[in-house]
Amino acid sequence: MTGRLSDSYFDDMYAASPDPWQLAERWYEARKYAITMAMLPRRRFRHAFEPGCSVGVLTEMLSQRCDRVTATDVARVALESARKRLSHGDRFDGVTLLQSSLDTPWPADVDLVVLSEVGYYLDAPSLRAVLARECPRLPRGATLIAAHWRHRVDDYPLTGDETTDIVAHTPGLHLQARYLDDDVVIGLFSVGATPSVAASTEIPGAFNPPEDH
Ligand SMILES: C[S@@+](CC[C@H](N)C(=O)[O-])C[C@H]1O[C@@H](n2cnc3c(N)ncnc32)[C@H](O)[C@@H]1O
Asked: Quick one: CA dihedral 123, 124, 129, 132, positive or negative?
């Protein structure tokens, strides 16, 4: 059985507030989302998987870069808010919202996995086991990005740094880029070694891997 924070822990948070982390309002979150989106190495992705989507702020951004997005959360109330947020204009096209947990099997055919503030709700053995089971099913060249708060939260099984470290040690994942400040760590990983953005878009002079100086 997976060791993780209980669903009722999050249900209680959403019962107390519709957006417990103020994801739609805080400058901290808007900036973190902008960094996360800017780090993605491709202009477009076929199918993104975003477990722990909460009220859908990042889901909405992903929907503009991805043909399809499968976004999940354990909290039904959060998914209802996400549904409302995405139901304007054409933003819902291609987005599937599901109530499920990160440790259940991931959707097939995914070329982008976004673990944003969700990995540390599992304990270390469980997170390792999920990544070891699911990452080998991702296609070669797929992207996984992991963004996590670095300050300790007593209730959470892991810190953001511990979470990132577990992701980084997943067999088959290669670190492509890393952003770090006092608050957040964001690791960008590829499944297998992949060309740099400049090399893959054929910018003259870009070699892969970069030549040593
Ligand atoms: C801090 S919010 C993160 C929202 C969004 N990913 C972001 O970065 O802004 C964490 C969300 O993860 C959900 N969550 C917690 N444990 C989960 C799990 N095991 N599987 C999927 N979602 C989970 C919570 O219900 C909550 O909505």
From this structure: positive
